[in-house]
Amino acid sequence: MMLSESWCFEQKVQEKDGKERERNQSFPWSNFCMMKKDMMVQEHRAFPRTPLVLCEKSSRLLAEVRFSSSKIDGSYLAEFLLEKGYEVHGIVRRSSSFNTGRIEHLYKNPQAHIEGNMKLHYGDLTDSTCLVKIINEVKPSEIYNLGAQSHVKISFDLAEYTADVDGVGTLRLLDAIKTCGLINSVKFYQASTSELFGKVQEIPQKETTPFYPRSPYGAAKLYAYWIVVNFREAYNLFAVNGILFNHESPRRGANFVTRKISRSVAKIHLGQLDCFSLGNLDAKRDWGHARDYVEAMWLMLQTDEPEDFVIATGEVHSVREFVEKSFKHIGKTIVWEGKNENEVGRCKETGKIHVTVNHKYYRPTEVDFLQGDCTKARQKLNWKPRVTFDELVREMVDADVELMRNNPNA
């Protein structure tokens, strides 16, 4: 799903005092679930898992959304559904610390965490019993499964876990719907990913492009994709796969490449950091804004017949270009020197090196190029992206400048 997942959580940074330190980003797991009068969403927070949403349009909506450090869709989807009058139920994984930072503003009373139209339940995609219990209690009409271990680079280290959550977890959820007797009343959305295309077989990639995943994450998501298709064909379940290309926002997890860039550029702008390291600068992705993409998720479940859709902007930009535009927004021009692991990004105005390359941020098998063709979504859903690439970069940098100004240790 995400390019930025190629960069692991260790970030070697050179602080203002000139000393290099390893910053280990750790993220607690949790699951968050949303509900409208007919829907449920679940999202898991922990190692980057994605969101799941279950919805019901007339009585109760259970939306399970996992608000993880890597996933940002759940919070935007919760906002979107609440604005449409949904009652949102979220599934959260138990943690000794609060892990609902992205949705605190959605509480009826954020200071006291008092619930209003958003209600939370404890649960997990690895626990089929709890899924059956929650779904049977809520009886949602729409379900959005955004739950996953979604960090591509980490999936090489946690391959079995990734398969259990991203692949078998989807099966557990589908089986729970069937066990609860809701096959004929529930609409199911599965958060699929452009990582399915991996070693791309055609450019651009569309719904009929052959899959060739290049990571345990992509392979697990491939199983999830096909088990959704199987339930659709075997049991006539209204189930769809949303093959979403990279989508970002200021809420992106700190160990994903786009957010790592915007955070580092903000710190450099404020004099809190001198240099940061990245992996494959020439990897190219189709980047959009998460807020635009959650609307597409909802639209897929409003159709008469279930179909799978590619959601993308159709534009391609490299990591290198993301770096350049981020620095340009704070008045710095980056000039590249050297090759491969010896390449550096130097500020033209000051001569300082702000970007270096570190091979540890490369994936064992890279995905070099992803470009989506969302013609089908444009025609059948009347959907199109609104936020441009330049607007996305500026929004992320501005948000992190404000964040670091108020909290340099963020």
Automatic annotation (TrEMBL):
Pathway: Nucleotide-sugar biosynthesis; GDP-L-fucose biosynthesis via de novo pathway; GDP-L-fucose from GDP-alpha-D-mannose: step 1/2
Tagged with keyword Lyase: yes
EC number assigned by the record: 4.2.1.47
Catalytic activity reported: GDP-alpha-D-mannose = GDP-4-dehydro-alpha-D-rhamnose + H2O
Coiled-coil annotated spans: none
Cofactor: NADP(+)
Enzyme class: lyase
Highest taxon of the lineage: Eukaryota
Entry's Gene Ontology molecular function annotations: GDP-mannose 4,6-dehydratase activity
Keywords: Lyase, NADP
UniProt KW NADP keyword: yes
Gene3D superfamilies named among the record's database cross-references: NAD(P)-binding Rossmann-like Domain (3.40.50.720), UDP-galactose 4-epimerase, domain 1 (3.90.25.10)
Domain NAD(P)-binding: 73-396
GO BP: 'de novo' GDP-L-fucose biosynthetic process
InterPro entries tied to this protein: GDP_Man_deHydtase, NAD(P)-bd_dom, NAD(P)-bd_dom_sf
Function: Catalyzes the conversion of GDP-D-mannose to GDP-4-dehydro-6-deoxy-D-mannose.
Family: Belongs to the NAD(P)-dependent epimerase/dehydratase family. GDP-mannose 4,6-dehydratase subfamily.
PANTHER family, per database record: GDP-MANNOSE 4,6 DEHYDRATASE (PTHR43715:SF1), GDP-MANNOSE 4,6-DEHYDRATASE (PTHR43715)
Protein name: GDP-mannose 4,6 dehydratase
Organism: Ficedula albicollis (Collared flycatcher)
Gene: GMDS
